[in-house]
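FW: tagging you since you asked about this chain on Friday. Here's the raw sequence from the shared folder, copied in full. Didn't touch anything.
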Amino acid sequence: MPRRFFRLFTLSLPLLLLLIGLPGLALAAPTAQEATGTITAVTIPPRMNARTGPGTAYPVVGFVVAGTKVKIIGENIDGVWVRAEVAGFTAPVWLAKRLLKVVDGSTATAQSASAAITQTRPLSATVALSTTATTAPVTAPVLAETASAPAVDTSAGPVAVTTPPLINVRRGPGTDYPVATSAAAGTQARIVGIGPDRQWYQVEMAGQSEKVWIFAGLSTLHGSLEAIPQLTEAEIPPAPQPAAAQPVAQPAPQTVAPSAPAAVAPVPAAVARAASLPGVGFGYGVQAHIIHTGQEGQAMDKTREMGFSWMKQQIEWRIFESNPGQYGFGDIGPIIGAANERGINLLFSVVNAPDWAREPGFDASVGGPPADPQTFANFLGALAREYCGTSLKAIEVWNEQNLHYEWGNKPLSPAEYVALLRPAYASIKAACPSIYVISGAPTPAGDNGALAMDDFRYLEEMFKNGVARYVDGIGAHPSGYNVPPSVTWQNACATIQQTGNFFNGACDTPHHSWSFRSTLEGYRNIAVVYGAAHLPIWPTEFGWASQNPPFHGAYAYAADNSLEEQAAWTVEAYQMMRAWGWVGPAFLWNLNFRVVANGTEKAQWGIVRNDWSPLPVYEALRGMGK
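HL: got it, structure written out here
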């Protein structure tokens, strides 16, 4: 299923609704006094943020779409931000200068000191601030920083001011060090040292008796670092190394109380590489919806045209065993046959118990697991036996079980999940030893009460309960949101704000789940810590949505991603996974939801149009080296 950002953190959705929930609101015209000279520019990105001050630490008051004309009335001291009058805003706003193109202007005659608006160093050819006028350089008054942010005293040395709503403050320069405390946005801390990789500041913070560390990318710097020492590796105590927990033999189902994970990512980029993978290496796959559609042949052909050899289909148990022991696999047969003919390997992700198998008083509004895990094991054994030796090569046991509506609105319990997996594995292997068993992929999420459990913590508890004994691969759903695949969660906020963004999750609630890379590297790290380096990570669902405006308001990040970005990022993700060496077959979400469910939120990830014609991402994948 596609990722809804409200699944992760409760903060993001109310903030978004505040920005977009009033479509009929008419704002008063700007009232700011014009400068004697005017400079007109147009915005370049599809969307860019408008702020109350010259920097990403200042609040976003709205957004400006591509091609909007703005009147520049000044710039900040370092020339990175401009103050502008924009139609629809009651007061001047601040915009990133390099995301503007000057189209008209004359020399300003303001009495304050002036500085030429010159081309800044661009990130790419498309975002350079350029001028087309052939007259003298356009100038604008230099404006002091506004008073929107509190004063910062740098008389005793440089100060870091935290920018997200809440960040972790750690005992060392890395996420593998324990958390000392947390700091709210606007917290000021004097910088006394710089980490070896220059990504962390050692600071003195009120309420802390010892020096602590914050990630530099989640703060704004006030003052100069010139006199601040950069510490060497030898000057920093090593991070504590947790001992791998021993798997629990045959655990009884129980509800696991939330606890701090022993070794959770986000992790450093350097993660252990698998020496070898059991049975199957990396593969190119895509998820499709072809059950009960009659489109299996066309979907398989499109998959082969891309040079892909794997396809995933979700199978609902409740449809194929309406009564105990009565299996009706008829509609699965055509999928197996079409894949057999075309040499496509199939992964079935099996979910949703029938009513007769669920607990008394179950919540019928959502799917959920069975009361007795053996009933599920019996079904999976029958499925494996029916199609052993065919194109069915792998079975994923459940889906996103750390999310409330995928687990029957029951208490989220990794121990209960492993208790479901254990007999399922035994039954599948007894029926068909060659079928790979993949653990159900958690959804990338932060802790959110009864609604979601942090996927790193959930995965770690799965390992503590012995998951490595009952799988051939670890399922993962590394989401892309509006962040490129190579960008870690620590750099996600800065990255999305460089080109203009509407969805701000990576800045509002920094977390690994916004990052494709950080999520996958975190899963690998946890597997290695628990002695399971031999198990490949299977990304059974990943991808980037692209739709402006989004088909569903809960997926605002889809508007930030152009079709060209969707194409480039997807290709890059496949290349990264293949190069890592510890990733099994990877399944892009999705092939054909624009065909079978166009206009729904799922269609935003589709790679062909509703007439099966290719979108840019499909073309890019077809041309990608494999």
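FW: The radius of gyration is 27 Å.
HL: agreed, and The longest helix spans residues 414-431.
FW: great, closing this out.
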